[in-house]
Specification:
- The structure is a homodimer.
- Chain A has helices at 15-29, 37-43, 64-76, 129-136, 153-158, 166-169, 172-175, 204-208, 242-254, 267-277, 295-311, 323-334, 336-343, 361-375, 401-420, 436-458; strands at 33-34, 57-60, 81-84, 101-104, 111-115, 120-123, 141-142, 176-182, 188-192, 217-224, 226-227, 231-238, 261-265, 286-293, 318-320, 348-349, 354-355, 381-384, 389-392, 395-396.
- Chain A is α+β, with helices and mostly antiparallel strands.
- The first copy, chain A, has 4 domains: 15-106, Uridine Diphospho-n-acetylenolpyruvylglucosamine Reductase, domain 2 (2-Layer Sandwich); 111-227, Uridine Diphospho-n-acetylenolpyruvylglucosamine Reductase, domain 3 (2-Layer Sandwich), CATH 3.30.465; 231-338, Alpha-Beta Plaits (2-Layer Sandwich); 343-440, Alpha-Beta Plaits (2-Layer Sandwich).
- In chain A, strands 15-12-14-13-18-19-17 form a 7-stranded antiparallel β-sheet, sandwiched between helices.
- In chain A, helix 9 (242-254) packs antiparallel against helix 14 (361-375) and helix 14 (361-375) packs antiparallel against helix 15 (401-420).
- Chains A and B meet through strand 9, helix 8, strand 11, helix 9 and helix 11 of A and strand 9, helix 8, strand 11, helix 9 and helix 11 of B.
């Protein structure tokens, strides 16, 4: 490979640089350039155990061209640029370890077009998934990717998000048709088209999806939509053991049942959800499922699923077909993060995110569960198990170095276990700040060096979200 | 962006270089290095109107490590390297305009692993799709991507192939989980994993899929498999006009009917298929459809489709559920290329491949059909219309410069029409040699320059399949 001069390891910009950039941005953007401590800290907010690392300034952009101007001003001063959507990412993506300018995209929140007849839409990056679905509802369409949080669609693309519906509808990788992005050079690039498929050159769309703001800032997205199913049926099924629940998932997937969602909560997580959401779920391992289709199709799927789960001792079921009842069932799943957080007041929730081939799921979850016990840590489990993806959420007292050490060691073993099973260190949260050390283990040195060379080519001065994804 | 020194425009290697490389390869690979005129010409075979451009030598590789050795020998001499699977690509991908070494991967034809429980398999690149499906059949699994030709899976990944099943099962982009490839530097890179999803860094798998051998040679693929459906039902439905057929397709897709295949043949193509495959299909525009699912699900889908098509004057149907009958129906579709070829003995078949958003399909096909008539050319139409993708196949007498000019102008208008409708110049065939001129029109200069910079970074000496995809 060609070896462009190595990108400089970042340092924080000098006071003079910060002053020059903020002056230039203030002159152009007026009171949309903010440097107050509170706003800066809010934009460095992080749900990891990395401390808050605020940017030097925050600027609220309103158009692709404004993002271009901001990037050009920053590029001229080699000032870091960090894209900000809603701040709900779980790996410190919006932190600013080397300072710089946080580009807040929340005011770019317009749905620019809905092409109902093509099942696609064009949105600005600050539109959240709930806002989009609200906008679409009258047209019988929805955007299926649901990571739980009401994240911005730009942020979801940047982290290659997925969530509960991915087992049927895919991830952001599969549901972004085209993008507009501002590159580190300040150039505006448009990738893809509204065609459903294309073989016209390199797949720049998929290069940007999952690049976590390190290759460019996404300023417009063309998204694939789905029709709201004629019938939806949701169920909750308790199991005697977590292994039985996982075995039922494996057989469900292997049998080709087109389940729309299939989620696992372990008994620890269920107890937390009961407490947080005032529910009365049985405190055993649970599977939450949802089927989408015609009335007859949904009934047929539910019947088959019932047969499978019965083989593994699952039941009795609770079913819901009305929207409000389904929402109540799913509320527990959506609230897992906050429910876990409430289990141990004062503790930090550290979200893990491994994903393994489905055949290894029961084994991986089972070993992990035993590891949690052996490590003497508190860590509920929830997961998008239809994809082989599950989260443990260790609750850590940050003033206890011994506990931090035990959780750190547990996470190392969890990731090593998943990778040994041909899985990945992150199914959907991304690499961000604290998973960079797993990249070489997972990808090997040649693939990692290829990623680095792409980064150096596109962002030679390492201004785009430095300190994330790759230690360039 | 960083600007590595521009890659040199290629010239053919000198006689000395050819002699040195072939001597080194002969010393290492013995009679698996072939320089006979016949074998070289066979490896430069092309189904386009670009003349045969044979490589200087052909070497038959048997392992990833052998491909690595070949690439290293070639790289040391800046000798072009062209990957060869089955030679069925339609855009001259295997031609060698600057000479070099054709790396024939057909002996790398082993299925290395089938993980039935995970619905995936690992194959060498020379395995063809039919060979894989033969291998899988006893396990109730199949690989759904079907471009018609019995192409190699490495070649299908390299061109981001799709075909008849893509409307339901996606394209190679969606069905390749992981790859091993040899980069132009000779390094072996492994991308992705067997996990169903991952957010761990840049999507190198999708960067290689569709790169047409210009960024690396794929030497191993992990592919997603599907369960053979419990029930399959296939039908043929005639329509009074091509517009009526397209309108029926649009409504089918918009209504969310999960059709597995939906193919259009115009009356010209039907006549050609009748003649070639000894069929008695009604010589009007036809839709061929296939439904996959449970017995009840398939029956429900067929009924709904019948209702939709009746609205547009479609019918009467011919249905087939038994495997032999379905094969007979689909034989017509699989043979369109050869059937077209037989319509005008001595003519060259030039395959076009535009794809548009589904809402524009009827309009695009209709205008194209009128353009064919106005241009005084012979060009049957067939297409994967569920994706908005269709092919016209002008039959050109290569000794008639006036006809060549008319067909060339027709293709320019066809592509311009598709791009103006927010579509693409190629849905599935790739760019190869003759579509490079459409890249800037479709992607714009910024995206094209980004692609070029990726190529220059990964292949600074432009040894991998030079003269394809990008005029670097």
């Amino acid at each position: 490979m060609n070896a462009p001069s190595p990108a400089p390891l970042r340092e924080r910009p000098s006071q003079e640089t910060v002053a020059a950039v903020t002056a230039a941005l203030a002159a152009r953007f007026g009171n949309r350039l903010v440097t107050s401590q509170a706003v800066r800290e809010q934009h460095g907010s992080t749900l990891t155990w990395v401390p808050n690392q605020p940017p030097d300034a925050v600027v609220f952009a309103q158009s692709t061209e404004e993002v271009q101007e901001i990037v050009r001003i920053c590029a001229a001063h080699r000032m870091p640029v960090v894209a900000f959507g809603t701040g709900t990412s779980l790996e410190g993506h919006v932190n600013a370890p080397f300072g710089g300018v946080s580009v807040d995209l929340s005011q770019m929140n317009r749905v620019l077009a809905v092409h109902a007849e093509d099942l696609d839409c064009v949105v600005q990056p600050g539109v959240t998934r709930k806002a989009l679905n609200e906008h679409l509802r009258d047209q019988g369409l929805f955007f299926p990717i649901d990571p739980g949080a009401d994240a911005s669609l730009g942020g979801m693309a940047a982290t290659r998000a997925s969530g509960t519906n991915a087992v049927r509808y895919g991830t952001m990788k599969d549901n972004v048709l085209a993008l507009t992005a501002v590159l580190p050079s300040g150039e505006i690039v448009r990738t893809g088209s509204r065609a459903r498929k294309s073989s016209a050159g390199y797949d720049l769309t998929r290069l940007l999806v999952g690049s976590e703001g390190t290759l460019g800032i996404i300023t417009e997205l063309t998204l694939r939509l789905s029709g709201i199913p004629e019938a939806i049926s949701a169920g909750i099924c308790p199991f005697p053991t977590i292994k039985a629940a996982c075995d039922a998932v494996i057989m469900t997937i292997q049998s080709g049942l087109p389940v729309a969602r299939i989620e696992l909560l372990d008994e620890v997580q269920v107890a937390a959800c009961n407490a947080h959401s005032k529910l009365t779920l049985p405190e055993t391992p649970l599977l939450l499922v949802e089927f989408h289709g015609s009335e007859a199709g949904v009934a047929e799927q539910a019947e088959r699923f019932g047969e499978i789960t019965a083989e593994f001792g699952g039941g009795p079921y609770e079913w819901a077909t009305k929207a409000e009842e389904r929402s109540r069932l799913w509320q527990a799943r959506h609230d897992v993060y906050w429910a876990a957080s409430g289990m141990r007041p004062g503790a930090k929730v550290i979200a893990t995110d491994v994903c393994v081939p489905i055949s290894r799921l029961a084994e991986c979850v089972d070993e992990t569960k035993r590891d949690i016990v052996a490590s003497g840590i508190v860590a509920p489990i929830a997961g998008h198990v239809g994809d082989g993806n599950f989260h443990t959420s260790p609750l850590v007292m940050m003033d206890d170095p011994d506990e931090i050490a035990r959780v750190t060691a547990f996470i190392e073993r969890l990731v090593a276990r998943a990778i040994a099973m041909e899985g990945t260190c992150t199914g959907e949260h991304g690499i961000g700040q604290k998973k960079m050390r797993f990249m070489e283990i997972e990808h090997g040195s040649a693939a990692l060096e290829l990623m680095r060379s792409l980064k150096r080519t596109i962002d030679p001065d390492n201004i785009m979200n430095p300190g994330k994804v790759l230690a360039v």
